[in-house]
Amino acid sequence: MAATARVGTSGWIYPHWRGRFYPARLPSSRWLEFLSTRLETVEINGTFYSLSTPRACERWRAAVPADFVFALKGSRYITHMKQLRDARSALANFFASGILRLGAQLGPILWQLPPRLVFRADVADEFFGLLPRDVRAAERLARRHDERVAGRCALTAPDGRDREILYALEPRHESWMGDEAASFLGARGVALVFADTAGLHPSPSAPTTRALAYVRLHGARRIYEGHYLDEELRAWARRARRWVRSGTPVFVYFDNDRAAAAPRDAGRLAGMIAGRLVKPEGKDAGEVPPRRARRPPAHFAFTS
């Protein structure tokens, strides 16, 4: 994956964004399309709660431009219920559930762990050893699905079959922040997530790999709410530029969804990374745009 910085939001189906970010008259069926006119990536968090379907993934892809990238949140059945153990069948079902239909627009896959899950090298080694490293390998794994997705699965990608699949891990137990865990993840090219959770959960002090930098901004002072200050966003912009210049692709997702702070902050950070100041939009986002309205560039590559 090219060394660029992409900024987006964690999810887009938020009714309270209507009139604050989405135009008041815009039907919810066009919210993803509208988001894609402002930003170039989104983190799909619905896949954390339940398996997707091929039809849903095809609909998502049809709604956005060809350069839009979808990050996916891995199944909580794997992370929270099975706690990474004995996960082969569940992983096969996850990859067979339709996400391969995203093809060349499939971005990183995020695994968020529960606070009780401590780092154990043997458990982590088994789980990360099962993860497919490219789309072709994901197709092979998907063919091992069980009856739970039979009849509603997709086992091939329409394009991008040679595309590498990148992984990020957001643990919430301090043991994953230690040197042993960082070395373990780095050797496997897994990015430990930089998570701003208003001090509720730990976050690493340094990247674990140059393969990917993944940032989740849940809120600086209160989780899931409040705008980020300009100086806070400028600090993240500097880090993103530094990572990209070192050859690392960067994905940043805002999860401060209340009062539509997330999409506005995402636009502000994108502008800062590009070296331009973007002010938050007003309360009402205005008129319904024409379909596939062009957006300003929102991902950035640096050569020096």
Structural summary, described in words:
Helices cover 30% and strands 15% of the residues. It starts with a strand and ends with a strand. With 304 residues, it is an alpha/beta fold. The protein contains 10 helices and 10 strands. Strands 1, 2, 3, 4, 5, 6, 7, 8, 9 and 10 form a 10-stranded mixed sheet that branches. The model is unreliable at 280-284 and 296-304 (pLDDT under 50). α1 links the parallel β1 and β2. The protein has a single domain, classed as TIM Barrel (Alpha-Beta Barrel).
Keywords:
TIM Barrel; 304 residues; 10 strands; alpha/beta; ten-stranded mixed sheet; single chain; 30% helix
Number of domains: 1
The number of helical segments is: 10
Please tell me the overall pLDDT: 92
Q: What is the N-to-C order of secondary-structure elements (H for helix, E for strand)? A: EHEHHEHHEHHEHEEEHEHE
Radius of gyration: 18 Å
Secondary-structure-derived class: alpha/beta
CATH architecture label: Alpha-Beta Barrel
Shape: globular
